[in-house]
Design brief:
alpha/beta; 10 strands; two-stranded antiparallel ribbon; about 20% strand; globular; 8 helices; six-stranded mixed beta sheet
């Protein structure tokens, strides 16, 4: 008898049992991405780390800001002090679980893709002694998952994210700016901060991409102290409308419903232009504050998109840690 395909293989993350879903995520991440993030953690300040190491003689090209003047005066030979790369990393991931994330028209729902993004960061940055914590933003409330070390702690956070289900009731609009402010105030130890959201906010009704999002100021405070990675989750139906006739579109966070005739080319073009402006506003804002920006789509291979982002960041990292222009070398 011919082998029949296993129906469980086609299941989405949320349809699988939690343990099976986590094992599938880990295998996907480890097999396809593990080779890209090997090595010590990059320091959060200019240079490879923040702890002083032994002094050595100055060589052409060394950063003069690391000059050890005491050793130089004693030996009469210029010396610089190397820095030790940070070995322990504290990572906090804030995941937007608002009603707009309970949506998906392709391979995954946006919420499932958000869990996959957190799993990717967790599995690849985890080293002995590292701590990983989480914040879950839903219905204007912020639930905290304490930072702990070990793989079991990471599994606990991912299991909690998978367990968060939409109760079908109308939710209050989530306050992303307030959540970022709270994150900056309460998690003060320097480390990596990962923000996973669709970045849809009330002012997105405006189509001017130059407008500052409500969360930008709070994000700037976060990037001033931590290394920040913003993961933007997108579904293709949020970017353009298909020609399917008259449809009723509702806002899951406010309950507002609007009738739209998608047969009209003008309506579809205006929708696409507004969606493009919203994405551009998000991109420009994240660039202004200095946060890393990874875009994941529910209709694309999120693993391949993550690989491309990692490789691009690796190429940019040496320039990010160079002395500012005009500083003597």
């Amino acid at each position: 008898m011919a082998n029949r395909p296993d129906p469980r293989a086609a299941m989405t993350i949320s349809q699988l049992a939690p343990e099976r879903a986590l094992r599938r995520l880990e295998l996907t991440v480890v097999r396809r991405l593990e080779g890209y993030l090997h090595g010590e953690h990059l320091g959060l300040l200019p240079g490879p780390g923040t702890e002083l190491a032994e002094a050595r003689e100055y060589q052409v090209g060394d950063d003069v800001r690391r000059m050890d003047w005491a050793v130089t005066a004693r030996t009469t030979v210029p010396h610089v002090r190397d820095l030790i790369a940070d070995r322990e990393l504290e990572t906090w991931a804030m995941v937007d679980l608002s009603a707009s994330m309970d949506f998906g028209t392709s391979q995954l729902e946006k919420r499932e893709l958000a869990v996959a993004a957190v799993a990717t960061v967790g599995f690849l940055t985890h080293r002995l002694g590292d701590r990983f914590g989480g914040l879950m933003l839903r219905d204007s409330s912020l639930r905290r998952w304490p930072a702990r070390s070990g793989r079991l702690a990471l599994y606990g956070l991912l299991r909690a994210l998978l367990a968060e289900q939409d109760n079908g009731e109308l939710q209050a609009r989530s306050d992303l700016a307030g959540a970022l402010d709270s994150m900056a105030r309460t998690q003060r130890k320097r480390g990596l901060r990962v923000i996973v959201s669709d970045f849809l906010t009330p002012e997105d009704g405006e189509v001017d991409s130059r407008l500052e999002p409500s969360w930008e100021r709070a994000m700037r405070k976060l990037t001033a102290q931590h290394q920040v990675l913003a993961v933007e989750i997108i579904d293709p139906r949020e970017l353009e409308l298909p020609n399917i006739g008259v449809v009723m579109i509702g806002d899951p966070e406010t309950g507002a419903i609007r009738e739209i005739d998608t047969r009209k080319r003008r309506v579809r073009d205006e929708y696409a232009a507004a969606a493009l402006a919203q994405r551009e506003r998000t991109r420009i804002a994240l660039r202004r504050v200095g946060a890393g920006h990874l875009v994941l789509r529910t209709d694309r291979d999120w693993v391949a998109d993550t690989v491309r982002f990692v490789l691009a960041y690796r190429r940019m990292a040496p320039r990010l840690h160079q002395p500012p222009k005009g500083v003597a070398r």
